Amino acid sequence: MKKRLLVLLTVLWPLWASAQVLRFATWDGSENLDIQRRIAAAFEQRHPGVRVQVEAYGAGFNQKLSAAFGARNPPDVMMMWNFPLYHRVLEPLDAYQAREPAFEASDLVPGLLRFASVDGRLYGVPAGFTSQVIYYNKDMFDRAGLAYPKADWRWEDLRVLAQKLSRPAAKVYGYGLDVAPDPYDFQGYLWSAGARMLAGDGQRLRGELDSAASQAMFNMLLGLLDQGLAATLGVGDGKNQRQLFVADRVAMLMDGAAFRLELAQDGKRYGVAPLPSFQGRPAHSVVSVSSLAIARDSKQKELAWQFIRFYSSAEAVRLRQGDLPVLLSVARELALQDDPQVAPFYAMALSMRDEVPAFLLNPRWTRASGVVRDAIQEVFLKKGDVAAILSKAAAKAERKLQ
Questions:
Q1: Integer Cα distance of 97 and 309 in angstroms
Q2: In terms of CB atoms within 10 Å, which end of the chain has fewer, N or C?
Q3: pTM of the model
Q4: Which class is domain 20-129+287-350?
């Protein structure tokens, strides 16, 4: 048996060793990593003699990628979101796209290309996206005899529903509020109030993060906590939102598309609604976009582009399940925009058209975002006056951008 295995390895090893290796770095893990490998295997079948080496950087993605660029040994292709920070070490893709398009612009969900562009140049190809929606627990609504949220609802409607669903003594709450959120995701709350974290000039937080509109949103959310209508998610033990939602201890919460796959695994009955409006203003959601980029130092850029072209094809887009199809043709084919559990994501993606995330306004935003994150947590953990906390944080974060 050992001799046969040795002979087989002796035959196959030269073929494997001589393969042209394309390195592809991803932040995905678990089921999504398996999908990446399936896409890579499908590409290899179409390109004999090519092996795609999928490098799973996981939670340390940014640090490992930065180290690879610093050592002048980056992967050929990588998942990317922060193009303002990385674009100088990435290959511009305009000429490739003009010569041999990876996508038809009219087939992309509107607004996604700006996430992969810097100063009018294209550095990435959108691969997946998600917006934020409200998930509601159908079991809890049904037991309370309550109608499900409608598309044109308001935060006041959510508060009234939360009152009817909450039993604080039993640790059952109408809403689950992440009190230690990623500042990127929290921007949707502020946009819906007519506020911003960062001004359009990319420099000023004072008068924006601490504006009256921003304070109004913070105070509304604080009211849900003070009235015992919202659970605090993201801090302490036993605060996993998936567990609380599945255990019927939280009736509504805000999240992206990946959460629906987790609930499907749990067999949980749930519904999805667009974000509520605030004080008569239209609701706005952030959109998170994953794209593929090519390292400027790659020695096989043509092959890397062919991989991106395949990754952007309808065949590969159909395989990605952790986020939503960026191709409208695939969404139509799968009837996703008619699916009540998916359609709100596409509707909320369009809500971001007039808003610009802070990281796109200033490549140094990551220096300031930690200050903002800490301030949000301070407010919700009631460690001081809202106006004072936000004012102090705005001034400190501005200095980080200098």
A1: 9
A2: N
A3: 0.91
A4: alpha beta
